[in-house]
Amino acid sequence: MATAAHRIARTPEEDGPADEAALAVAYEAAFDAAVAADERIEPRDWMPDAYRATLVRQIAQHAHSEIIGMQPEANWITRAPSLRRKAILMAKVQDEAGHGLYLYSAAETLGTSRDELLDKLHSGRQKYSSIFNYPTLTWADVGAIGWLVDGAAITNQVPLCRCSYGPYARAMVRICKEESFHQRQGYELLLTLSRGTPEQHEMAQDAVNRWWWPSLMMFGPPDDQSQHSAQSMTWKIKRHSNDELRQRFVDICVPQAETLGLTLPDPDLRWNEERGHHDFGEIDWTEFREVLKGNGPCNEQRITQRRRAHDEGAWVREAAAAYAEKHTSKDTVQNGATRANNGAKDGEAAA
Ligand code: FAQ
């Protein structure tokens, strides 16, 4: 079946001396038709420059969030209260590194390189999620991150599995499965604490008090201040607005908090029969903007640690590159030798 997608892989050069302006219009029309038909745009397809730039911006920010997000939880690996909890936490932190790698790979299909993206992160030219600029003060914070931060991430990311850009959408499928497991481990951890001693319960409540509002900020600015939402939704990169997803998250969390026996720190939180949703209090957008500007409690610590990890890992990257190079040349020599041998055998056979 001829789909709208078969048309955009050709480049102007392949099309010969045809009128370039007319071709540009045709490519754009084919791209719009593919998006409208809910087809996936793939790396070799023609796409508008602004669509490519938006994807690089969002995927890079997402990838950076995954790897910076390792830090607050890794802070507790050595102090996890049991071997079981330590093993679970190590696996989770490792998963986040894996998510970063899938996402950097997805960004690379758009013609950028991982080095370039990391350089932009390290020099402050690209963002990572505001949430990771808050400290993990107690063990209960590991639970609150799993329940609320991974929970918010899933709410935001499940619709991204239907993103119009193929490599990003496919990466999100696997990431969401893992995040869902992370969310449950956080929930189970908090439930254990909440049902434990009064001190443990208090620790769980304190963590929820500190992580609730920053988790709501993860969804981005309110719709009327979100500069990218409208265009990203037209391109079907985003499927829902920031406020829609934030509302969905609040509605999911309220009954979960009741089961946990914990209170969400918002006196204005109540069910609105008419809207069929929970009303909730005003988010402190000044705090959000300050964190984005670099003035959150841990911004400096996070980026310093990231730069240090990158510098200290230089020898690993060099060793891996040297190993790959050695194997490529060995393979080339071996393949050459095999071809020569085969040639000799052929020669013998011919003789
Ligand atoms: N933090 O016009 P919009 C995770 C920026 S992964 C920092 O609404 P957009 C896993 C935004 O970039 C968490 N910056 O933008 C995990 C833009 O600035 P720019 C990360 C924010 O793109 C769990 C400006 O504000 N998830 O947690 C934030 O349409 C546990 C205007 O905003 C993703 O990245 C923020 N919270 O919508 C790991 C999901 N919000 O770029 C470890 C993919 C907004 O013009 C442990 N991303 N900004 O300079 C998205 O869905 C979108 O990019 C939004 C923002 C929804 C974040």
Account of the 3D structure:
The chain is mainly alpha-helical and 351 residues long. The chain has two domains: 1-8 and 22-46, no CATH class; 48-311, Ferritin, core subunit, four-helix bundle (Ferritin, Up-down Bundle). Helices cover 66% and strands 2% of the residues. It has helices spanning 20-36, 49-68, 70-74, 83-108, 114-122, 140-157, 166-194, 198-217, 229-234, 242-260, 285-295, 299-312, 314-350, and strands at 270-272, 277-279. It has a two-stranded antiparallel sheet. β1 and β2 form a beta hairpin. α6 (140-157) packs parallel to α8 (198-217), α6 packs antiparallel against α10 and α7 runs antiparallel to α8 (198-217). 32% of the residues are buried. Mean pLDDT is 92; it is low at 1-7 and 344-351. The structure holds Phenylacetyl coenzyme A. Phenylacetyl coenzyme A binds at residues 57-58, 61-62, 65-66, 69, 96, 127, 129-130, 145, 149-150, 153, 156-157, 217-221, 226-229, 232, 238, 242, 292. Residues 323-351 are annotated as: Disordered.
- The share of residues in extended strands comes to under 5%
* SSE class: mainly alpha
pLDDT under 50 segments (min length 5)?
1-7, 344-351
CATH architecture of the largest domain: Up-down Bundle
The hetero compounds bound to this protein are: Phenylacetyl coenzyme A
The CATH topology name of the largest domain reads Ferritin
Question: Biggest β-sheet: count, sense, barrel?
Answer: 2 strands, antiparallel
Tell me the strand order in the biggest sheet.
1-2
Helix content: 55-70%
How many helix segments? 13
CATH superfamily of the largest domain: Ferritin, core subunit, four-helix bundle
Rg calc: 25 Å
| Overall average pLDDT | 92
